[in-house]
TrEMBL record:
<keyword id="KW-0564">Palmitate</keyword>
<dbReference type="Pfam" id="PF00282">
    <property type="entry name" value="Pyridoxal_deC"/>
</dbReference>
<keyword id="KW-0472">Membrane</keyword>
<dbReference type="InterPro" id="IPR015424">
    <property type="entry name" value="PyrdxlP-dep_Trfase"/>
</dbReference>
<comment type="similarity">
    <text>Belongs to the group II decarboxylase family.</text>
</comment>
<dbReference type="GO" id="GO:0009449">
    <property type="term" value="P:gamma-aminobutyric acid biosynthetic process"/>
</dbReference>
<keyword id="KW-0663">Pyridoxal phosphate</keyword>
<keyword id="KW-0968">Cytoplasmic vesicle</keyword>
<protein>
    <recommendedName>
        <fullName>Glutamate decarboxylase 2</fullName>
        <ecNumber>4.1.1.15</ecNumber>
    </recommendedName>
</protein>
<keyword id="KW-0770">Synapse</keyword>
<keyword id="KW-0963">Cytoplasm</keyword>
<keyword id="KW-0333">Golgi apparatus</keyword>
<keyword id="KW-0597">Phosphoprotein</keyword>
<dbReference type="GO" id="GO:0031410">
    <property type="term" value="C:cytoplasmic vesicle"/>
</dbReference>
<dbReference type="GO" id="GO:0000139">
    <property type="term" value="C:Golgi membrane"/>
</dbReference>
<feature type="modified residue" description="N6-(pyridoxal phosphate)lysine">
    <location>
        <position position="394"/>
    </location>
</feature>
<keyword id="KW-0210">Decarboxylase</keyword>
Length: 583
């Protein structure tokens, strides 16, 4: 059965209170005060303005001089009052590393944490808005966002923090379905905080020893899951799937023509790459960045479900060879952005082997299905690929950003990208230099993205990720079954979706019965944008839309938020109908 939501946490403590629903914020706070240590529950209650009178009385004590000070909120009998800090008189220069800045720093950061905790709790509350939408010019005028020459007080800084979150999209909200990356994992969030606190760079073992080792361990585990023997190979975490895909193209070119590294594109023949017409735009963008050119990316036909047609791939490879071009790279997609389609990897692998072409799998969206015993069959053949992109920040709900490129051939990334800068990668260091991973990356400075994934994996285990992914796919099937025969809805393609992408049109009463097909499509094209705009203005939910080929605008519902429930799917359907009934 679906969860009753975040506020249901207080149900067991409020069940006996006839005057209070177990799903109210007040009931939740009563439970939180008992379940959270360190006074966090009490602080959340205060920040949410729940039971303010009772908490105000509890949160204040008399100092020896008779003045009122705030208690520590430690939820235990104690005598550790905390004096209220006046941030309007303090500046960033009063914080560490300033002398005697430790107490001020602790108080300032505690205020920031209190703001964040309140926002987190609010994000999971279905009674709150997903978005407090304002048009750009209006939002620019509502607050002073300009940068000044003079410093602002810490009080101003805290106000800026609150304002920023006030107008931020609540991507953790159970009814936020707009992007492939949704939700907020508490362990992942904690890991992100720790990562920022450590504030180091991933280029060498000497400055990031634990993080480098965790990247090594995790990438090996991911390669094992792909099916590469003993997890052998290579890989790196990069700033998103687009960069991971570009890495793959870079490696494929170097593998075929290593001289291109020094001599450039003028030293090689005309190269061509192949990808589905439904593939991500990053394939063309990578070709443009690498000097290969977008015209050298040949788009292969897809079937009505959005899967690449292998026979057309082979035909276009043969045609390219006949023109004197050199096919060097095929990018298959495991989970297309719009339809959620999985290209037939086994057939594509056969063609790549036959024509000696590098096979890459863009699994940025669908790669995480490898974690599910029920759904991993959709990626059968991925073990034959030369490389794979896998974004844990999508279906695995790791906080942004977290994208991995996995490579089957060990050492290729190093030889392709290394520049051997002597001020970073000295060859006479006293430890194993293979752990200085920075020289195989295109970046010099590289953010620590690994710790979020690693810590969540420790917290959930593989079976936890599997359950999370299976639940999202179950919700998408529930949506599909609810609307496939429902009046006013029409599916973009026949059959149950392979991923959590559910693509459909909503036809309002004013469009539903039009006999003129041209006029009907013209008006239907405007429906999704209008409903989406109303969603944002009301702040109730968010779901994406787009055209595809000759198809007019349709809704693309994707589910990757672990907080979503069957009730949230029902709400979405009802909200679309409510917002579109007059169109």
């Amino acid at each position: 059965m679906a969860s009753h939501g975040f506020w249901f946490m207080g149900a067991e403590n409020a069940a006996g209170n006839g005057s209070q629903s177990p799903n109210t914020p007040r009931a939740w706070c009563q439970a939180a005060a008992q379940k959270f240590t360190g006074g966090i529950g009490s602080k959340l209650c205060a920040l949410l303005n729940v039971g303010e009178a009772e908490k105000t009385a509890q949160a204040q004590v008399k100092a020896e001089d008779g003045s009122t000070v705030e208690s520590c909120g430690c939820n235990k009998p104690c005598n550790c009052p905390k004096a209220t800090v006046c941030f309007s008189d303090l500046y960033s220069t009063d914080l560490l590393p300033a002398l005697d800045g430790d107490a001020k720093t602790m108080n300032f950061l505690q205020e920031v944490v209190d703001i964040l905790l309140a926002y987190i709790v609010e994000s999971f509350d279905r009674s709150t808005k997903v978005i407090d939408f304002h048009y750009p010019n209006e939002l620019l005028q509502r607050n002073n966002w300009e940068l000044s020459d003079e410093p602002e007080t810490l009080d101003d800084i805290l106000i800026s923090c609150r304002a920023t979150l006030k107008y931020a999209i609540k991507t953790a909200h159970p009814r936020y379905f707009n992007q492939l990356s949704t939700g907020l994992d508490m362990v992942g969030l904690a890991a992100d905080w720790l990562t920022s606190t450590a504030n180091t760079n991933m280029f060498t073992y000497e400055v990031a020893p634990v993080f480098v080792l965790l990247e090594y361990v995790t990438l090996k585990k991911m390669r094992e899951i792909i099916g590469w023997q003993d997890g052998r190979g290579d890989g790196i975490f990069s700033p998103g799937g687009a960069i991971s895909n570009m890495y793959a193209m870079l490696l494929a070119r170097y593998k075929m023509f290593p001289e291109v590294k020094e001599k450039g594109m003028s030293s090689v023949p005309r190269l061509v790459a192949f990808t589905s017409e439904h593939s991500h735009f990053s394939i063309k963008k990578g070709a443009a960045a690498l000097g290969i050119g977008t015209e050298s990316v040949i788009c292969i036909k897809a079937d009505e479900r959005g899967k690449m047609i292998p026979s057309d791939l082979e035909r276009r490879i043969i045609e390219a060879k006949q023109k004197g071009y050199v096919p060097f790279f095929v990018s298959a997609t495991a989970g297309t952005t719009v339809y959620g389609a999985f290209d037939p990897l086994m057939a594509i692998a056969d063609i790549c082997k036959k024509h000696d072409v590098w096979m890459h799998v863009d699994g940025a969206w669908g790669g995480s299905l490898l974690m599910s015993r029920k759904h991993r069959w959709k990626l059968n053949g991925v073990e034959r690929a030369n490389s794979m992109t896998w974004n844990p920040h999508k279906m695995m709900a790791v906080p942004l950003q977290c994208s991995a490129l996995l490579v089957r051939e060990e050492g290729l990334m190093q030889s392709c990208n290394q520049m051997q800068a002597c001020y970073l990668f000295q060859q006479d260091k006293h430890y194993d230099l293979s752990y200085d991973t920075g020289d195989k990356a295109l970046q010099c400075g590289r953010h620590v993205d690994i710790f979020k994934l690693w810590l969540m994996w420790r917290a959930k285990g593989t079976i936890g990720f599997e359950a999370q992914i299976d639940k999202c796919l179950e919700l998408s099937e529930y949506l599909y079954n609810k609307i496939k025969d429902r009046e006013g809805y029409e599916m973009v393609f026949d059959g149950k979706p392979q991923h959590t992408n559910v693509c459909f049109w909503y036809l309002p009463p004013g469009v539903r019965y039009l006999e003129d097909k041209v006029e009907k499509m013209k008006r239907l094209h405007k429906v999704a944008p209008v409903i989406k705009a109303r969603m944002m203005e009301y702040g109730t939910t968010m779901v994406s839309y787009q055209p595809q080929g000759d198809k007019v605008n349709f809704f693309r519902m994707v589910i990757s938020n672990p907080a979503a429930t069957f009730e949230d799917i029902d709400f979405l359907i009802e909200e679309i109908e409510r917002l579109g009934q007059d169109l």
